[in-house]
Amino acid sequence: xxxxxxxxxxxxxxxxxxxxxxxxxxxxxxxxxxxxxxxxxxxxxxxxxxxxxxxxxxxxxxxxxxxxxxxxxxxxxxxxxxxxxxxxxxxxxxxxxxxxxxxxxxxxxxxxxxx
Amino acid sequence: xxxxxxxxxxxxxxxxxxxxxxxxxxxxxxxxxxxxxxxxxxxxxxxxxxxxxxxxxxxxxxxxxxxxxxxxxxxxxxxxxxxxxxxxxxxxxxxxxxxxxxxxxxxxxx
Lengths: 115, 110
Prior knowledge:
With 115 residues, chain A is an all-beta fold. Chain A has strands at residues 4-7, 10-13, 19-25, 32-38, 45-51, 57-58, 67-73, 76-81, 90-97, 104-106, 110-114. Helix content of chain A is 0%, strand content 52%.
């Protein structure tokens, strides 16, 4: 099946700094990618839909100025957590559908810890 | 909100079949039933999906009731590596966003 990668897999940063997370579809093109956040012992929460060549669509309650999404190419979407605070510490996961296969492929996740 | 209801947890003995139920009484005619699982600290993994007919692949079988209001995921011979949270999802195919419910935490007992 198709592969989605994320980088970095783990990041620790100081409060107030910004962190960029990359999501790549390695062997297929993705005009749409999705970003999720998962807190310990909870389910995945959809944050936003990343659209190649246009603005991202954010779910209700997600601050678009804090979580900047850029879908620069058909294989890359980035999520930047700006001015990170300890409450932003979470597991961030991206996914991408590959047309013709009927399912979505998920990245391995990025664990963000804000000190 | 998620469109599905699943038991929060289940146990299954290693080597036995694990049968995970899911209710989706408000499913619409063109929505598919998808199953994903998430092993601890990893991204979700696709298992199987179906529309009306029962489906089987190398991982599992999916049994969908005739009225499509419920389904069952069957892992025929569960192993310890099948310990995970299993999510039943109702969605349009391919490009639609996935809304995750709470899933079922499956424990495989040695």
